[in-house]
Design goal:
This protein is mainly alpha-helical and 424 residues long. It is 71% helix and 0% strand. It has helices at 27-30, 37-51, 54-69, 74-83, 85-90, 94-112, 117-132, 136-150, 156-172, 176-194, 199-214, 218-235, 238-254, 258-276, 281-296, 300-313, 321-338, 342-357, 361-366, 369-380, 384-395. The protein is globular, with a radius of gyration of 25 Å.
């Protein structure tokens, strides 16, 4: 982990996203007509879920379950139990999701057999639940079962989704070659299904680039990300271009190719400002990354303009304004310290400390770098009494031993995306 004076704005989390397949319309799967009471409730629930009306969706799904439980067609009940997984995963209600899926799986295995594609669908969703629960071995076993079943089907897109989800798991487990092999197979399948210029193909390239970057294979990552960017440009997909440029900037910065990193970060910043506005939280990410790289390239004046702008705009129109302000202030303080302006860095940290103290315990733990850096700076300025008081108040609360200058700093992690991500 880099020292407190050599940080980089990277990503919110290295946890990989995984997709549940939302199957519509339900009547095509169960033999129900669109006007049957169960099918109506099921489709109403899915429509509500897609629109973000989660409370309404849950109520409709429960009504569908009540109807299905009175019906002789048990597959209707399995369908609803399976579809409710979307809601439970979205709300991280993992035990409820697992219970529903296990019940749906029992019905589908009995009614359709263990090799049915519908059985595979439920197994895949159950694998996601185990994945999100941190049960890696169970998730891997279930993903492999699903892949074995899906290889007998002609729906290569469905197989590509599961390959991607298992690749995401392998990425988390640092089994990089296993992950790359599966991502490449998903890419090949999607190219055959959709052609080279398709969003699914672009996402496959991006997944490959992001996972290689996160495991320090920057040159390989750049090749994949260049392909992703080219595909997103042909599709005129602005969000896709932004995330590809963001990761290209990270890779080039790691390789000390500052000019290329500045170009990528600058383009990402421009596009994101146009898309979401100058004050959007993710726009701050691009500003900070560009500022850090400009500074590394000897362009301190240009960098400071961006740092000051980020600090000034961080508290504006953000639900987590305190968190954003602290993240940006830490970055600016590091800049000031790098340039020998320690009193100015101290002033910045002192001014933001009350905002840190007002955060929840959870956020204070995530951002404990602020008092850690502040404490170290006070010691460098020969203000030992103030440093001791600060350490006693904040640092010992969140660590089993005092956090000293010799220990590594926690990263303040912010980013516009959490890739690799599977295809919905």
């Amino acid at each position: 982990m880099p020292s407190s004076t050599d940080r980089k704005v990277k990503s919110l989390s290295l946890a990989f996203a995984a997709a549940v397949v939302l199957m519509l319309p339900v009547q095509a799967q169960t033999g129900e007509t669109a006007t049957s009471p169960w099918a109506q409730k099921e489709n109403e629930a899915e429509t509500s879920f897609i629109s973000g009306a989660y409370t309404e969706a849950e109520a409709k799904w429960k009504e569908a379950i009540a109807i299905a439980q009175k019906d002789s067609n048990k597959l209707n009940l399995a369908e609803t139990l399976n579809q409710m997984t979307h809601l439970y995963l979205k709300q991280r209600r993992l035990e409820e999701a697992r219970s529903n899926l296990q019940a749906a799986l029992a019905i589908r295995e009995k009614e359709l057999g263990k090799s049915s594609q519908k059985t595979a669908e439920t197994l895949g969703n159950l694998a996601l639940v185990e994945h999100k629960s941190g049960h890696d071995s169970d998730a891997e076993r279930l993903y492999k079962e699903v892949i074995e079943i899906k290889r007998t089907d002609t729906n290569s897109n469905s197989l590509a989704i599961t390959l991607t989800n298992l690749a995401n798991l392998y990425g988390e487990m640092r089994r990089i070659e296993n992950a790359r092999k599966l991502y490449l197979e998903a890419l090949e399948l999607d190219q055959k299904t959709y052609g080279k210029n398709h969003k699914e193909v672009a996402q496959d390239y991006f997944n490959l680039g992001a996972v290689m970057y996160h495991h320090n294979y920057n040159k390989e990552a750049i090749e994949y990300l260049d392909n992703a960017l080219a595909a997103y440009e042909k599709l005129n997909d602005t969000p896709g271009k932004i995330k590809a440029l963001h990761y290209l900037g990270l890779c080039h910065a790691e390789e000390k190719s500052h000019g290329k990193a500045i170009d990528a970060y600058g383009k990402a910043l421009t596009l994101h400002s146009q898309l979401k506005g100058d004050k959007h939280p993710d726009t701050l990410v691009h500003k900070l990354n560009l500022a850090r790289t400009l500074d590394s390239n000897g362009q301190a004046k240009e960098a400071e303009v961006l740092y000051k702008d980020a600090v000034a705009t961080a508290p504006t129109n953000h639900s987590d304004a305190g968190v954003k302000l602290i993240e940006c202030t830490i970055e600016y303080a590091h800049f000031l310290k790098r340039h020998g302006r320690k009193p100015e860095a101290e002033k910045q940290l002192k001014e933001v400390l009350p905002a840190y103290e007002s955060l929840s315990a959870h956020h204070r733990r995530e951002l404990y770098e602020l008092p850690r850096v502040y404490c170290d700076l006070l010691r460098e300025l020969k203000k030992d009494a103030e440093a001791d008081a600060l350490a006693k108040k904040h640092l010992d609360v969140f660590a089993t031993q005092h956090v000293s200058e010799a220990q590594p700093a926690a990263k303040t992690q912010v980013a516009p995306s959490t890739p690799p991500a599977s295809k919905k």
